[in-house]
Amino acid sequence: MSMILAVLGAVLLDAWLGEPRRAHPLVGFGRVARRVEARCHADRRAAGVLAWVITVLPPVVLCAWLADGLAARSPWLSAGFSAVLLYLTIGLRSLGEHAQPVAAALCAGDLDAARVAVGRMVSRDTAALDPQQVAAAATESVLENGNDAVFGALFWFVLLGAPGALLYRLANTLDAMWGYRTPRYHRFGWAAARIDDVLNYLPARLTALSYALLGCTAPAWRCWRTQAPAWDSPNAGPVMAAGAGALGVRLGGAAPYHGVWEPRPELGEGLPPDAGTIVRAVRLVRRSVGLWLLVLVSAAALREGLRHA
């Protein structure tokens, strides 16, 4: 039950406080990662593996040591520590806080403001996006980050406790920093990208399943099965294809990066996206969190019932 209390506590803390505005631990971790990169970078996979180990393992080992020590003292201390750490690894409220200004600007017809707001969510060039492309970019970001910023951490927390959630979030952060196919990171970032792929494999598919169950199920399943294999990322493909199908909208397609429009497969089916699509995507992620909590609480209650039977 301490695990359930920690999950519920983390979700409530996130809803109440949102992401820390000052001194977020992930910001500090990013600074450390940049220093490690500066010292270890070389055009070799081995250098990337070494940098990943140096950056990730010490905080994860420290977290495991603290978790074990607190668990030996008190289950309440352990649950409190786990709740705070899990809270720091998820960003459910921040998804809505980033997406809402984009939807509001589109509703007001202020395309320039919408482009600026969506630029805080995505890495693509936003200056040339039309309203539909802005809405698509924001919706894709919400759906994908539902997995990266929420469900992945929840999955690994349930599996391995606080150290598992921290391992996932730090690995995901390094993938966002190093996991690019650019000349600088093609070899150095290989380990960060592959480890993130492995850690996300099961959470991404559970996220896609959640979207499908809570949206338009048949289209979500069809888009997941037929469109996801064509997507460049083995984990973002199922999440966004199922999410687009669940929402009944068309996403994907060409997008501008570094001044070049790069072709991407189509995702979903139905109507083109608009401001309302962004709002519905946020609601889909929130409902999916509710589903996960319901499953966890039900499983814990069933386990307790069987133990006392």
From TrEMBL:
Lineage, uppermost ranks? Bacteria, Pseudomonadati, Pseudomonadota, Gammaproteobacteria, Lysobacterales
Q: Which residues cross the membrane?
A: 49-67, 149-171
> Which compartments is it annotated to reside in?
Cell membrane
Natural source organism: Rhodanobacter ginsenosidimutans
Functional pathway: Cofactor biosynthesis; adenosylcobalamin biosynthesis
What does the UniProt keyword field contain? Answer: Cell membrane, Cobalamin biosynthesis, Membrane, Transmembrane, Transmembrane helix
Kindly report the protein's main subcellular placement as a broad class.
membrane
Query: What name does the UniProt record give this protein?
Result: Cobalamin biosynthesis protein CobD
In UniProt terms, what function does this protein have? Converts cobyric acid to cobinamide by the addition of aminopropanol on the F carboxylic group.
Q: Which family does it belong to?
A: Belongs to the CobD/CbiB family.
Q: How does it sit in the membrane?
A: Multi-pass membrane protein
